[in-house]
Structures are given as C-alpha cells and as structure tokens.
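User: I'm writing a short report section on ligand binding and want a predicted complex to refer to. Could you take this sequence and NDP and write out the structure as tokens? A short remark afterwards would be nice.
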Amino acid sequence: MSQIALITGATSGIGLATAHKLAKENFKLILCGRRQERLDGLKTELATHTEVTTLNFDVRDQNAVNEALISLPDHFKTISVLINNAGNAHGLDFIQEGSSQDWDAMLDINVKGLLYVSQPIIQQMIKNKDGHIINIGSTAGKEVYPKGNVYCASKHAVDAINQGMRMDLNQHGIRVGAINPGLVETEFSKVRFKGDDERADQVYKGFKALQPEDIADIIHFTITRPYHVNIADLVVMPTAQASSTMVKKSD
Ligand code: NDP
Ligand code: 8X3
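Assistant: Sure. The structure tokens for the complex follow:
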C-alpha cells in the first residue's frame, strides 16, 4: 500500500521538487501552500502518477492548520511522512536596521508554523504507531552569518526542535530527522529580497548552486531507508560552498 506524505511549501522550490519526486515513487501526497492556482496545477499534473489532495493554509494560522487537517478525506488521514518544509528568509539586514515585520514573519512561519503543523500530525502518528518527520533546517541553523541574525535564529530553533522531537518521540518509534541545505536555487532569494529579482539572481551567479531536485532526492533516500535507520541530521552544500560565507565563485 502507498504511504501518505504531507509536504508543506509544496508550491515552489524544494517542496515542489519533492512533490514531483515522491509522486513518481508512488507516495500518495497531501500538498500544502497558499497559492491555490499552483496547488491546482500540481494536483492535475501529478495525477498521472499518484493520488493527490491539496490543502491551502497559512502555517502561521493555527486554526486554519487544524481545520485544513480535519478536512482531509478519510483515505488521506493516516499520514506516514511529514515534510516540514514551508519557510523563507524575509530580508537581509543588520540587526539595528531590521524590520520587525520581517522578524515576525520568520519566527511565525519557520518556527511556530512548523510546530502548528507538526503537533496534530504527531498525535495521529502516535496513535497509528507509524511516522517519519523530516524537518528542513539550513546551514543557517548550524552557523550564523552577518545580517542573517533572525533567519539564522529561526533555523537554529528548527535544529533544536528537530532534536527535541526526536527525543520526545523516541518512545513511540517515530523517526525524526533534519536536512540542512546550503545554497539552493529556488524562489528563496526572491522572497528574501521582496521581488528584487536582479539581487536574487546574484546569489546563485558564478557557481553551481544546489538544485531543489538534489534535496528532493535526499529526502526520498532518507524516507526510504529500512525502519531501523534514521538519518538524524544531514548538512548538504554545493561543492562550491564551504560555509555560509565562503563560496568559490568564478569572476
Ligand atoms: P521557496 O520560496 O521556493 O519555497 C517556499 C515554500 O514555502 C513555498 O511553497 C511557499 O508556499 C511556502 N510558504 C512560505 N510561507 C508560507 C506560509 N506562511 N504558509 C504556508 N506556506 C508558506 O523556498 P525554498 O524551497 O528554498 O524553501 C523551502 C525550505 O528550505 C524553507 O524552510 C527554507 O528556509 C529552506 N532552505 C532553503 C535554502 C535555499 O537556499 N533555498 C537553503 C536551506 C534551507 P506559498 O507561498 O504558496 O504559501
Ligand atoms: C538558506 C541558506 O545561506 O541563504 O537557508 O541562509 S542561506
């Protein structure tokens, strides 16, 4: 029987590539995001491979999260794999110049949103005695870089939550692990720079960045290991990257 995977942030980047990968690998999919037209397009596109349902909610809104999960059809209610991927950076500013709206967005989405989505699904996984949670962290959760301040704090929080979840769910046999990418070419920088595409494109110029499909492959590998194997914490960077601040670029 196909396993059911729920992916947050499936409308773009890493989540979108993961939806495509898992659809081809015969997972039944619950795809989440806020951009309805993208969710509709995906559902149609992936229907040739697998059964797909979509949920539209903002992860910041706990009631909306709960209502969306309750609205799932019965045959989609037993979620085996949760991929906590929705998130973004908002702004890249010195701490003394940062906007509190950006801080709120990053902490509310990347940290609290992840918790809001996880808790009801964890409760159901405990009941079903089956579950695997993948938290998408970042190299920004392993080290801090200049002007990264609050985004790095949000991803350090994901790192802590990943460890805490693993400990708390150990007694229930639920696998928990984080994948922490370095630079991945997605809409991430367009969001960070609020639609300044030229600035966003500069981030990935002069070297080969990770592609969202690279992370999707790793997620698929991670969730298809035998039950006794849990990839607990994995850091992956482009070959050109050695740290958050060291990237070998051509002139
Ligand atoms: P994208 O901007 O391409 O995708 C972000 C996804 O998150 C979208 O599908 C978006 O969907 C969803 N999302 C954002 N805010 C919300 C919200 N409030 N409620 C619900 N969904 C939301 O970026 P990436 O694919 O790069 O990012 C995915 C994850 O990977 C993030 O957690 C990011 O921090 C992490 N990451 C990214 C790296 C990179 O270099 N790109 C490196 C390391 C980690 P919609 O707008 O439709 O709601
Ligand atoms: C995204 C990678 O280096 O832009 O998490 O913070 S970075």
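A remark for your report: Residues 4-247 form a domain with the Rossmann fold fold (CATH 3.40.50.720). The CA atoms of residues 152 and 213 lie 24 Å apart.
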